[in-house]
């Protein structure tokens, strides 16, 4: 009898040790709310989200006011159409699901964040307003997406002030049982400027590391947005970023590895050079749904890639494809599986996707909806070899279809940030510099374009960003469709003007022109 009790006790102990490891893994799904404005099969409603494929879902974005207030960016979508309510109603379909709302993003920039967080009084007001907002709209948590402290118009003191913000939020969130997370820069070149990582790890429930946008059309040669591994001198890889966060003190169980459900595209200098490291002349052509030059959603890629020249880089563990002078590097089911396996092998807290609406949510390509998200689930909640608790970069096969070329130069192409929107207008963003990361939304092309001060289309002579000549708070994003330019209007918050030297909204006193 005692023997059976010992066996039973051992079995229970093993069960209790094994189950929580899997149960604690997270699948964090960001949702870009502006995707409801996309045309055709790109249009995405909140109800399309499968709440059983995510443990946590995050609604993006709300904005930050100079006084520490929370700004709703699209009241028509969030309030009139019930976006916040419908998002939280996903919990009716999966009671275990946790919902959060994210503030900031690439468009918000750093100036307002910096001014609020470095002032003790406004920081306290910001903390209170966050708690009140989360409770009012019945979210389970809040996600800080400050891109990035001490960068892009921020101050050198941001690094310390960000920790003070997290510490004060932690106290209040614990009182109300709320979740606190953040989306953070991945590469050492950016993360080292913005974060005291050891302290960040103390206060956040989980850390969404944006391990993508490591290369893009801001580089002079083709490069994959998110290579899992690289050569011995390539620091812009998913592995290098994750290992940096670990060595700097971030708890493994809090690290959530980011996976992009999109690719970064280029226009090749020569259509004959289909390789990583090939010379380029700029961003790739925009897709029919996201309509952003230099980026394609996986749903756009998988619909066309069957006729493209598809290659697999076995060193970087990622695919890329070419068609004429168009080149795109992206994550598919195979590379996503490798990254999910990396999560398990290195005892990380889980995986995150940016973003749910650019996976193949209609199931047009593989006969199954959300193939990338399902690949993550299959690994994280299945069997994967145990962790070695070390970087495996040097042990990866050296046989590769093309030699990768690394660049850490900053972008010379346009970047943008926006602050306020009304009615059915959402925000937009261009690509971040090399070595940085972005949760970058796309402006709906059917948004209003008249500025009231000039004829916007006449301002556009090339794709990119241009400031209104009569009002420095107003700027436009120029896109070329079927040979004609279309301009989308944006407006900086009060006290800010559009800084054409860095293509962000900045304090007027800091803008030299």
TrEMBL record:
CDD domains for this protein: GH18_chitolectin_chitotriosidase
GO terms under cellular component: extracellular region
SUPFAM superfamilies xrefs: (Trans)glycosidases, Chitinase insertion domain, Invertebrate chitin-binding proteins
Biased composition (Low complexity): 397-434
Residues annotated as domain Chitin-binding type-2: 457-513
Compositionally biased region (Polar residues): 387-396
Region annotation (Disordered) ranges: 386-464
Single GO biological process annotation from the record: chitin catabolic process
Listed Pfam families: CBM_14, Glyco_hydro_18
Range of residues in the leader sequence: 1-23
Residues annotated as domain GH18: 25-383
InterPro entries noted in UniProt: Chitin-bd_dom, Chitin-bd_dom_sf, Chitinase_II/V-like_cat, Chitinase_insertion_sf, GH, Glyco_hydro18_cat, Glyco_hydro_18_chit_AS, Glycosyl_Hydrlase_18
Molecular function, one GO term: chitin binding
Keyword Disulfide bond on entry: yes
SMART domains for this protein: ChtBD2, Glyco_18
Keywords assigned: Chitin-binding, Disulfide bond, Glycosidase, Hydrolase, Signal
PANTHER family listed in its UniProt record: CHITINASE, CHITINASE 4-RELATED
Family: Belongs to the glycosyl hydrolase 18 family. Chitinase class II subfamily.
Entry protein name: Acidic mammalian chitinase
Species for this entry: Zootermopsis nevadensis
